[in-house]
What does this fold into?
Amino acid sequence: MANLTIDAVKAMTFDAIVIGSGISGGWAAKELCQKGLKTLVLERGRDVKHVTDYPTANLNPWDFPHRGQVPLDMRAEYGKSRSFMREETLQWAIKEGEQPYVEEKPFTWTRGYHVGGKSLLWARQTQRWSDFDFDGPARDGYAVDWPIRYADIAPWYSYVEKFAGISGNKDGLPQLPDGEFLPPIQLNCVETHLKDVLAKNYQDRHVVQGRCAHLTKPQPIHYQQGRAQCMHRTLCVRGCPLGGYFSSNASTLPWAEKTGNLTLRPHSVVHSIIYDEKKPGRAKGVRVVDGHTKQMMEFYAKIIFVNGSALSSNLILLNSVSSRFPTGLGNDSGLLGKYIAWHNYRGRVSAQYDGFLDKTTDGRNPSNGYMPRFRNLHKQETDFLRGYAAGVGGGRGSIQNRDGLGADLKASLLNPQPGPWNVSSWMMGETVPIEKNHVRLDTSQKDPYGIPLLVTSADWTENDDKMVNDYMEQLSEMFTLAGFKNIKAADSHSAPGSDIHEMGGVRMGKDPKTSLLNKWNQLHHCQNVFVTDGACMTSTATQNPSLTYMALTARAANFAVNELKKKNL
Ligand SMILES: Cc1cc2nc3c(=O)[nH]c(=O)nc-3n(C[C@H](O)[C@H](O)[C@H](O)COP(=O)(O)OP(=O)(O)OC[C@H]3O[C@@H](n4cnc5c(N)ncnc54)[C@H](O)[C@@H]3O)c2cc1C
Ligand code: SF4
It folds into this structure.
């Protein structure tokens, strides 16, 4: 960069840089641009424009050349990354060579490498955390204490909920705080039946409608974003042309763009953050490998938000070495990349119900029922730590009578009859972060951009196994009480990470000796760098995490801009 003119450096200089344009990066971009900062968003993948870049959104089943299946030769190209391996969603899948990683132990890493990141892939469930979650590590002594409590983040939950549009009921449960809700999607009769049975038989077990980021009744703020009411098409994973659910592409990024302060640069693979050797405790910019030319370039800013998604953000920080930080940016504690955790979705319980044969559902439901955590809330009551929530869903399949011949057979095939009610539940357990579960950089292998490969080294613990067993027992008990039949409980023994909510490695904490980030998501030792995606999470709770990333990001952006105004950054 030494031969660059002052003007060229100026052209590469912004007030703020955001790494990643997914759920948390979109929020960082919106907040920083709205507060007047010229903001550069660096995104490693291609651009995805809302509406125009959802190629399968309006296709009918017969429009797909292979009726939805992906041919075997194409499958091979995607290797390990088999998520989204359907014709309707293949545009989101990652090719094997794009960014290989080393699984020291089996670990499934699902990524969304395009503008919008996984905000185009997610299931949109958005439950708030409670103090039972923020208190968890302090109560049982595993991992470190969170530097914040529910009261610190509650106003920011409200702030992001109002903009994103979250539907739900006010259920009045301390372990699942209520929010700023649009009208709820309804539970169906079999889900309501389970809810009633639990209310009669237990004091602490509840089924509620899952809170979800769907516009059931858009408000003026949503129309201003150009979004419209969710029509329950349940084709969300193709991209919703109506903007019926929250994504960066439909919501935060266009909002940021409208301010005139956003520069979005796709095909920009962030290599590392540049530490400013002349200004102790500050970074000066970001090194980027251009996705097309593979040329290294530098961009500069006063503040940097790291939002590459949990493991990518770990990788970027680990790769940001300097003479001050030889093992990764801000890593004086030596804990960068450690205490990786995720969610435990291994347990499933399914059953059938003989009742309600006179009822069926009309239309589609993009959400589901939700059973908030009930284990170890007020006291430690089991031989495992923390607890699990559960998703709950019921529906009637259809039965086609294939007997007969000719016109009779045709008539019965064309007139399927409703089958029995099926009910299923999936576990959403908290894993307790331990030091041994970590990511690090491979010392010899590099990806196509010259960046060291990430090594994942994480495994289940005895605590996780015990929790799965308890989930299967308790859900089977509850299903039995509800009169469900043919109950089947199974442990998938899936690899860690399959449960998509990976977190940690750059955890928040009170003490710089045992954490990387302070209560404002600011690196203790490099104060103009903020990490507000899943990497910052000190523990994992049971709730789907993205709403918490959104709230933490908006909160940190507000803090960063105030600090900038006070000339502290
Ligand atoms: C199938 C599925 C269902 C899910 N359901 C839910 C749910 O119901 N509720 C919930 O809360 N969460 C859910 N999640 C998880 C949710 O999607 C993530 O928690 C969320 O998207 C994380 O936001 P993020 O900003 O950290 O990362 P992402 O949204 O993944 O965005 C990260 C962005 O950074 C970019 N990036 C990465 N590395 C670099 C680099 N080196 N340089 C430049 N850019 C980079 C990526 O390309 C990406 O665009 C689900 C995920 C999946 C896959
Ligand atoms: S269910 Fe709603 S959000 Fe999903 S694709 Fe349909 S209209 Fe869009």
Remarks:
- The chain has a mean pLDDT of 95.
- The longest helix spans residues 462-481.
